[in-house]
């Protein structure tokens, strides 16, 4: 019986590997966090007349959420007439724009489901006298805390609930306490996961918690790729709920489908799944998520079985010990692949917020792996032989494992607010450009890449009516008086 069950689990993890490759390869191309490549009129440009349109070109297709124009007198105008042309967003400018400095404030959602915002300044006729209008966006801490809390609850309820039901159906149904805990976790998943859609909408629109009841908030949240993640997660929770109430092979199959759904849900959106190359990152996220679900989901059933002194507890422990390497090895390999892709270089570990979150997670993982190794190589065999001291130590150790796993979920939830270094590097590599327009002459200046370090400046000069200008001499003067340059 034990050998047959262990063989079934090994075959099951082989199926997971096949699913990761076969189901996720067809995913379309995408990039994490869209970055602004070009804006017209260019940021800082001085133009002679009001433009008929304002265009934003990004590094990937996007969906506009909020578009506003702040006028020289501080008034704000919403821009609701626009057209999407591949990666370019063409916005119809108001017809009554006067002279002075204007600020275009934009907020879009990128293909990885995360909102991205920014602003661009241009002047008509000349810069405004006195202080220019200001576009600023303060962090809405109540919304940010709510998003983080929702993420932690979603991770914990999905992994512990669906993973727990998978363990009960495939490894050992040893304790009514474990079944009740799994049911409570699934109930939490079915409540917390949909709520995160509304929180996603608040963040995307830049609105406060009081706007959570607005239909546009939920519509915006569902319109991002995160909406797919939530639909898959809720469907998986429903399957797991039916699986725990279903006996025999039907319950096993339903729990397996729910288990696969967790991996598919997390691979549908987010930093890692949207990174290139898609054929590698999406399967990696899938394997990472299913590995976590198996490991985390086993902890409560094991603790409950030994705490209740169930006779089948030792059998479940033996099956788990035989199967866990087939979950942990893909989990670790996938995590390393994703970290290498997202970091871009070792310096990002300590120089970026994303890397600092990763280091905190790695520290917790080292502690977790040491504890798991101690359990497997020092406590498992004596426990199987009925040693009461080893059994008490194992139960205590598994409880500590559970606490560390939940802490890892809390740390990982901070990634929601930290763009990966790779995306930051892509944005920094984008060229910086400016258009200078006067009645007699115009100049288009492009500096590539638009970041600190060696760059190439390209200047195209024209007459005021876009004709060729045979200039005898061109001088480029760069200055930043506020920085003493």
UniProtKB/TrEMBL annotation:
Annotated GO CC locations: periplasmic space; plasma membrane
Gene3D superfamilies cross-referenced by the UniProt entry: 2.60.40.1220
Bilayer disposition of the protein: Multi-pass membrane protein
Assigned keywords, A-Z: Cell membrane, Copper, Membrane, Metal-binding, Signal, Transmembrane, Transmembrane helix
MF annotations from Gene Ontology: copper ion binding
Region forming the signal peptide: 1-19
Main location, first listed in the record: membrane
Domain Copper resistance protein D intervals: 316-415
A GO BP entry: copper ion transport
InterPro entries: CopC/D, CopC_dom, Cu-R_CopD_dom, Cu-Rt/internalin_Ig-like, Ig_E-set
SUPFAM superfamilies listed in its UniProt record: E set domains (SSF81296)
Compartments it resides in: Cell membrane
One Pfam family from the record: CopD
Residue intervals passing through the bilayer: 152-171, 183-202, 222-246, 253-273, 285-308, 320-341, 353-377, 398-417
CopC domain: residues covered: 33-124
Protein name: Copper transport protein
Organism: Chelatococcus asaccharovorans
């Amino acid at each position: 019986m034990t050998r047959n069950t262990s063989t079934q689990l090994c075959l099951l993890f082989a199926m997971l590997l096949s699913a990761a490759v076969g189901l996720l390869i067809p995913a379309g191309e995408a990039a994490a966090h869209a970055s602004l490549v070009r804006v017209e009129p260019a940021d800082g440009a001085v133009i002679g007349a009001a433009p008929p349109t304002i265009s934003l070109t990004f590094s990937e297709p996007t969906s506009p959420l909020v578009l506003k124009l702040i006028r020289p007198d501080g008034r704000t105008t919403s821009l609701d007439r626009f057209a999407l042309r591949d990666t370019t967003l063409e916005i119809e400018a108001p017809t009554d724009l006067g002279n002075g400095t204007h600020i275009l404030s934009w907020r879009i959602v990128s293909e990885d489901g995360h909102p991205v915002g920014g602003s661009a300044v241009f002047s008509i006729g000349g810069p405004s006298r006195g202080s220019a209008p200001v576009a600023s966006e303060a962090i809405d801490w109540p919304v940010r805390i709510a998003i983080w809390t929702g993420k932690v609850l979603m991770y914990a309820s999905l992994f512990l609930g669906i993973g727990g039901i998978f363990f009960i159906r495939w490894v050992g149904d040893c304790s009514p306490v474990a079944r009740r805990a799994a049911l409570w976790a699934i109930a939490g998943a079915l409540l917390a996961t949909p709520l995160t859609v509304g929180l996603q909408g608040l963040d995307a629109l830049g609105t406060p918690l009081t706007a959570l009841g607005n239909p546009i908030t939920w519509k915006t949240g569902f319109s991002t790729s995160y909406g797919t993640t939530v639909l898959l997660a809720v469907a998986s929770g429903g399957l797991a709920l039916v699986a725990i109430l279903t006996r025999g092979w039907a319950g096993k199959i339903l729990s397996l489908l729910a288990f696969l759904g967790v991996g598919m849900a997390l691979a549908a959106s987010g930093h890692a799944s949207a990174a290139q190359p898609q054929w590698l990152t999406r399967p990696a996220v899938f394997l990472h998520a299913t590995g976590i679900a198996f490991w985390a989901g086993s902890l409560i059933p094991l603790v409950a079985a030994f705490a209740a002194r169930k006779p089948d507890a030792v059998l479940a422990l033996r099956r788990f010990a035989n199967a866990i390497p087939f979950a942990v090895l893909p989990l670790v390999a996938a995590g390393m692949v994703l970290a290498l892709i997202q970091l871009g270089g070792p310096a990002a570990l300590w120089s970026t917020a994303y890397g600092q979150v990763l280091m905190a997670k790695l520290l917790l993982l080292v502690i977790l792996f040491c504890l798991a190794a101690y359990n497997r190589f020092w406590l498992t065999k004596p426990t199987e032989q009925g040693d009461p001291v080893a059994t008490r130590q194992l139960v205590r150790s598994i409880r500590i494992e559970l606490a560390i796993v939940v802490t890892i979920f809390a740390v990982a939830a901070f990634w929601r607010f930290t763009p990966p270094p790779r995306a930051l590097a892509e944005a920094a590599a984008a060229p910086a450009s400016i258009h200078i327009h006067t009645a007699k002459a115009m100049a288009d200046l492009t500096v590539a890449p638009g970041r600190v370090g060696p760059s190439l400046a390209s200047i195209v000069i024209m007459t005021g009516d876009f004709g060729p200008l045979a200039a005898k001499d061109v001088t480029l003067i760069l200055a930043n008086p506020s920085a003493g340059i």
